[in-house]
Structure formats: C-alpha cells, structure tokens
From TrEMBL:
Belongs to the glutamine synthetase family. Residues 91-192 form the GS beta-grasp domain. One of its GO terms (molecular function) is glutamine synthetase activity. Residues 197-644 form the GS catalytic domain. GO terms for biological process: glutamine biosynthetic process. This is 9565_t:CDS:1. It comes from Paraglomus brasilianum. Pfam families: Gln-synt_C (PF00120), Gln-synt_C-ter (PF18318), GSIII_N (PF12437).
Amino acid sequence: MSHHFRHTTLLSTYDYPPRVVQFPTRDGKQVYTSEIFAQNVFSLRTLSNALPKPVYEQFVKQMRGRQVMDKNTADSVAHAVRVWAMDRGATHFTHWFQPQTESTAEKHDSFLSLKSTLGDGWEEHVPMDAFSGSQLIQSEPDASSFPSGGMRTTFEARGYTVWDTTSPMFLQSGPHGTMILYIPSIFISYNGEALDEKTVLLRSAEALSKAAVELLNVIGNDSSTVNHVYTTLGIEQEFFLVDRGLYVLRPDLKITGRTLIGAVPPKHQQMEDHYFGRMPSRAMATISEAELELLKLGVPVKTRHNEVAPAQFEMAPIFEDAALAVDHNLLTMEVLSKVAHRHKLKVLFHEKPFNGVNGSGKHCNWSMSTNLGENLLEPTATPESNTKFLLCLVAVLNAVYIHGDLLRAGIASASNDHRLGANEAPPGIISVFLGTHLTDVLDAIAENRPIIRSSIPHVEHIKVGGTTLDVKISTMPEISRDLTDRNRTSPFAFTGNKFEFRAVGSKQSPSFPVTVLNAAVASSIREITAALRKQQGDKLSLTEDDKMSVIKEYIIKTKNIRFEGDNYSDAWVKEAESRGLPNIKKSLDAFTKLLEPVHAGMLTQNGIFTESELHSRYHILLEKYTKDILIEASTLRSIIMTKVLPAAYEFRKSLAEGIKALNDIGAAAPEENVLEQTAPAVRNLQAQIALLADNIAKVSAIRDAKDAARAVQEELLPVMEDVRVSADFMEELVDDKIWPLPKYSELLFT
C-alpha cells in the first residue's frame, strides 16, 4: 500500500549520510572565493589574451553595437573558445536560450567533425575537432514545439538561435567528467520575430539607454563622457527545499510544482522562528555547494538565509547588468536544482507550493547606471538639490503611474495569482513607496516650501547612507539608518539607490517584468526630455529653475502613485480606488492590459515588440494559464480517485469492522460517530470529483483561448477549491497509518 511507502520513506530520511564536498585548496589551505570566481567563464580578459590585439578590438566594437562582426573575427573567437573549452574537458557546445516557457533550452552539438580526403582513389574521412565562426554565431533549432502564440505556421517552424555577445560563454559539467560549452543566445523565428524572453529584454535595455543618454545631454552632460546607460539588476531568489523521497510520493508536487491538497499543520510559520534562523544542515550543505558551482560560473552570489516559512530559503547576488543578471538568475535556479538532487532534496520554485504558509517571490532590485559607474538613482545627502537624481526619480514614478497596469501584466500567471494579495506579497494594486525623507523632499518641492530638516527624525546628523541612531549603549558605535526605510508590503519600493520590484513570481523568468519596466521608464524619460526642451525654449541651456519646474510638474502629476502605508490593508484598497488606481486581482484581467492602446502603443513605438510579437505574447500567456490549471485539475482528480478516496474507503472499512466486533461482544462503539462523519464526507467528495471531471471536459472542448481561460478562472478554479477543502477535511479525519500522501508537517519539517 502507498501509505507504507510514506512511512518507510519518512523513516529513511533520518539515515541519509551527509554529502561532503571538498572546496578547492592550495597547499592545504582553502583558496579565497575571489580565486574561484568565474574560472569556468570565457571572459573578455581570457579572450583578449587569446586573440591578436586588432582582432580583439574588432570584437569589442561589435559587442558594443558599433559594427557587424566579420568572418575573420568570428572564426578567431570560435577557435579561441574551442581550444579553451576543450582544454578543460569540453566535448560539446550548445546555444543556451530562453523560450517563453519559464525555463531555458539547449541542444548539444559535438566539436567532432570529419574531413574528407582522397588518396589512391579512395575517399577517407579523417576525424578532427572544429568549431567555426558561423557555428558560434548561429544555430538552427526546430521552433515548432516552442510557444509562438500563432505567430508562425507549422511549415515555417525553423527558428534561429543567435549568440548574444554581451553575455559571456561558460562551461558546465556534462556526464562522465566531461564539460559542455554554453553560448548565451537569443531565439528568433524564421521571419525574425522574437520567440524568446531575451530578445525583447535587450531591445528594452537599448531603448532605455538611448533615452537616458539624451536626457543627460539635455541637462548638461558631456555626450563624449556618458555614452551608455545600463539597467542594473539584483535578483533575490526565494525557494523551498523538501526531501526528495517525500516529494516523489506527492504527484501534485511532481506534476504541478505545488500541493493541490494538504491540511496546514498546527505549527508552521506563526512563531516567526524560521526567518533568519540557523539554516538546517542539509539545506546549508546544498546551498553551499550550489554557491561553489555558481562562483565558478561567474555568478556573484552574496547572501543566503532562511525565509519566513519553514523549509523556505533565499539566495541573492551582487548587482549586474540586467541581461546578464537574468542569465545568472536562470543559472542559479538550474544549479540549485541539480545540486539539491545530489543531497536527496528537491527545490520548489512555485510561487505557492504550500497553502496557508508564505509563498516565494523573486525580488528584482532595479536601477540605472552610466558607463562611468554613476548610479542615476543615488539621491546623495541633499536630494532636493540633485536635479539629475530628481529627474530620473520622477521619470520612474511617471512610468509606473502611466504603465502600472503593464507592470501588473508582467508578473501575472496562474501560479502568482495564489501569492499576490495574500499577507506575504504585494496586492494587485501597483504603487510606489519612497520613504519618509524622499516623500518630504518631493512634497516640499511641489508645495514651494523649503526642506525643514528638523521635521525628519534624527536628521541633524545626515549622512549619505541615512541618519544616525542612538541605542543608549556606550560601547556601541554610531549606527546609520537608511532614510528610505523598507516597506515590505509595497510592490515597487525605493530602497536607498534602487527600486525593488517585489511582485515578480519566484519561478518566472525576470526577463519579461524587467522588459516592460525598462520600456515604460524609457518612454517616460523621453516624455520628460521633451518637457525640458520645451521649458528651455530658445535659451542656450537649461537653468536649475527650468529643471525644477519640470520636476515639480511631474511630482504633482504622479502623486497618486505614491503610497507610504500598509498595502495589505482594506483601507488602502478603498483609497487606491479613489485615486484611480486599478486593483487587478486575476491574471486574465492583467493579460488584457498588454493590448490596451496606451501600453501596446508604447511597446511597439519604442521598438520593444512588433504588433505580431505582442499579440503572440498575449496568446501564449492565455494558453499557458489555461494549460497550467487544466493540468492541476486533472492531477487533482487523479489524486482524489487513486489515493484519497481509497484511503477513505479503507478507513471506513476498518471502522466498520471494529464497530461490528465491539457490537458482537455487546460493548459500546464510540467509533460510530467517526463513521457517521466519514460517509457523507466521502459522498460529498465523490460528487465534487464528478463535477470537476465535467468542468475539465467542458474547458478542454473550448477552442477560443480567451473563452477557455475565462472558463478556467470562473468555473474550474472554484470547484478545485471545494475539492481541496473536502480532501483536507478527509486528511484530518483518516487514520495517519492509512493516509498515503506525505503531510505538510513532514514536507516542511523533515
């Protein structure tokens, strides 16, 4: 019986021998992490040492978008990277890309080639290792089985992966001690449309850079000094770790990534003792080994800690260029999954794998920096006089004010719907938190009043990092306090010198949310630049008063998007409605925002999407939403039919046999009360499962994607929730020895 497997597996978890991994050493001492960092990355420094200087300079010009790569440069780079990779054990290479599947894709090709020679009238094939520039630059995977949203027909199924020269190539372990060369790539259709997540992200980064450089030129920056503005990103990744043996006994976790049934245990996170607590040894060993592999891949992992829910953890890196940060986040997820497997654990990236406890997010810390390293969102000690910062700040506020619906669409999914709006994650209302100090600065500018520093607590000792705190302990040093404060309930919060987009789902690629954010800010910057030019008029240059006039205009315009209070409160829902801010609770309502003229026009006019790409994206999101929930519904039906109901039948039978035995000897049978509860519960669950099956069949028969998704949301999901309630009641009723599925108390605390 399956319940025997559950108990056997549970007992076996206490006998797992620890996995020991030796960190690199030299002369008997562990090497510094800086020496390990990026050792499996084909960096620019490595390339510069392998190429003649003129060829390397040609490559750098191409990488920066100044010219098309010629054949000689491509062949030279290909030869250099092949030698480097094969010297380290590589046998294959792959173009690594990001289709619209929330994961990555790869097709491996061997370096082996055959050269034909003629000798004595016979043709002979001589084996050789080869890698050409054309193989490096482009590959041709079949695109027929990747999401396209109807953008191409079956006979136009060919797609192209094209090397993204801005992201370095790297090596990952293959089977039997070999290595594989990974070539980060974009993925486009036969006709050149974007089929992936990365192409549009790179487009949005270029659009923002051009807009920001133009703004800096208008306000007086030397264009020969600042010629590029990068979007930077630091992605905090939350996840759960559960025992793999228990995981395989949960079909819902295996198939859908979340538990479709499961009663919440008496103790979970309510004691608030897991957050930042001591990390369990298996989790620590897993994360530590993953860090070692990630360091070798050039992923700058910085932080690890326990999260709020039991068995929940977080890893976070140092900031990088946004496109590279996305690559590294996807690598982090892949490496974590592989390493956890070695420790007999399973990583769960689903936004809500367990009902009743906190879900997981992917907090995207976003900012803008020039090619000189200046962070444009650094307020400095006197933000009220830093017009460059204020212009960039109001540009972001304006972007969120105009395109908040679009940002909501960027993080919408069936899985994230379970998390958004719960008391653990931001609601469906997009607002911006700035903190007391910046709010006071903006309000003072809007109201034409001076900044009264004494009105801000402890502000008499202002520092760049914030204010100072006195903890009344003589032995303690002066403590700095961040003036922005961190509002954990805000979906889009300013946190010192960056914005934290906290509503992004933990399992989704950050590419799309960051793409729409980049695009919205780029459009807003252009709007503000136009306002500055208008303010300048015929004058040779802008005055500080001209700049402050535009800043004031946009402070007033965007006031409604700023909120400093509790985003979880019912009062905020009402206030947001009075401010005209939409509360988009469900993904279907969010998806439609992609096609609204104000958002679609911005995305297409700025070259982020073509109209066909945007409509394709909309249909892919609809189809994925429907398929995700249909798979969940069918899995739920199977679990109830093959595991829950049989356990209930067995429990009922054992009760009935016990009652009969007691009755035969004239003894009282208090078990009759439990039996009386079991019978109607079983009949109720049987009826709900029949209704669930009918709804699955009904939705599956609907051909229109929008109608199918609407039926899933309005009809199928409520039935699934009813089934869950009944199944959870059954779990608490049925004898533990009979229950076949690992329970929350086992998954979360083993």
